[in-house]
Amino acid sequence: MLFEMSEEKNVSLYLVPTPIGNLKDITLRAIETLKSVDVILAEDTRTSGMLLKHLEINKPLQSYHIFNEHKTVEKLVDRMKKGEVIALVSDAGTPGISDPGFLLVRAAKEAGLEVNCLPGPTAFVPALVNSGLPNDRFTFEGFLPHKKGRKTRLEELSTESRTMVFYESPHRLMKTLEQFAEVFGPSRMASVSRELSKMFEENVRGTLDELVEYYQHHPIKGEIVLVVEGRGKTGRSREEED
Ligand code: SAM
């Protein structure tokens, strides 16, 4: 069958987004769901344990992360087939978005089980919308490869006309901005969002060479999303063409 219906009562696996900073961003439905399931799979049981304590939710927690997901997926699917209802959370944001989740969702669906991903916090949406760069079409790139495959990926993206969204760590930001200026050209517009929804949230927008210059003098800390304008038809930035 190609179409899917989300009859809540038959759901076996819930993907539950959790705050990316501000605890008030948890949804009412996320709380309700976490309270209703049999077990919560967490990327880091200590991190999620603290959130659940804050929400006064007392449920069994089981560890589920990139190092054990391959070998646990089959057993988890068996348990769901027997009637267990599971929620998956990651350390922050939406599970499956640059976080474990995909393998379990695919296996559950292949086994004919009902999966439901709740809408909720994720870092790339506010960064993209806040960037002021075109968001009618965009590509989510997540983390770039650190070494092997990085050059090829960047070359592939050099002709990308949609706005591009990247996750990046603070200690790699300078290197990435410099490489972007080289590959995309120094006048390409971009935006750096850090610590979204937190006390020190900051969104800085400018050309790639302006951002390189800015971050040379303003070392950055915290979590980062980098948004880069796509290539225009003439090879210039889309903004220059408008
Ligand atoms: N699942 C998460 C989501 O839905 O966005 C992403 C998890 S990924 C392992 C972590 C990365 O997300 C960070 O390195 C950063 O690039 C981005 N991120 C998460 N929280 C953020 C925040 N509050 N501000 C800016 N970027 C954030």
Q: Secondary structure elements and their pairing?
A:
Blueprint: E1 11-15, H1 28-36, E2 39-42, H2 45-54, E3 61-63, H3 69-81, E4 86-89, H4 102-110, E5 114-117, H5 124-131, E6 138-143, H6 150-157, E7 163-168, H7 173-184, E8 189-194, E9 202-207, H8 208-217, E10 224-228, H9 238-241
Parallel strand pairs: 1-4, 1-5, 2-3, 2-4, 6-7
Antiparallel strand pairs: 7-10, 8-9, 8-10
Helix pairs in contact: 3-4, 7-8
This protein binds S-adenosylmethionine (SAM).
The site of S-adenosylmethionine has 24 residues, from strand 7, strand 8 and strand 10.
Based on Cα principal axes, name the global outline.
Answer: elongated
| Largest pleated sheet | 5 strands, parallel
**Named CATH architecture of the largest domain:** 2-Layer Sandwich
Report mean pLDDT, rounded to a whole number: 94
Name of the CATH superfamily of the largest domain: Tetrapyrrole methylase, C-terminal domain
- The top-level CATH class of the largest domain is Alpha Beta
H/E element order: EHEHEHEHEHEHEHEEHEH
Count of DSSP-assigned helices: 9
Helicity, as a percent range? 25-40%
Widest β-sheet, arrangement of strands: 3-2-4-1-5
Give every kind of bound small molecule, once each: S-adenosylmethionine
How many DSSP E strands? 10
